[in-house]
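just leaving the lab so this will be short. what follows is a protein written twice so to speak, once as letters and once as structure tokens for the fold. can you read through it and tell me how you think this chain folds. thanks a lot i owe you, the record is right below.

___
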Amino acid sequence: MLAIKKARKLIEKSPESPTARTLSALIIALETEQSFPLKTLYQLKLDDFDLAMDVLKEWRLDRYYMSKVRLMDASLVVEELRTAPPAAAQ
């Protein structure tokens, strides 16, 4: 979560900067599953562009882990139903 933390610090440090605005828009688009114009990323300086790419990578990884957690939760529910005494299942 290093990139996400770096992005947060950058946004908090200078929220009015073009980089902070672009990163904020990217993060909001990711969270709300809305579209995001890629051309705005290309307008960033190379270091900031790399940070945005790292945020995307971490965001994707985090979503994978969240899916894994939901899968585990569903599996635990099934296991509880399978092992529950018959009276409790009714």
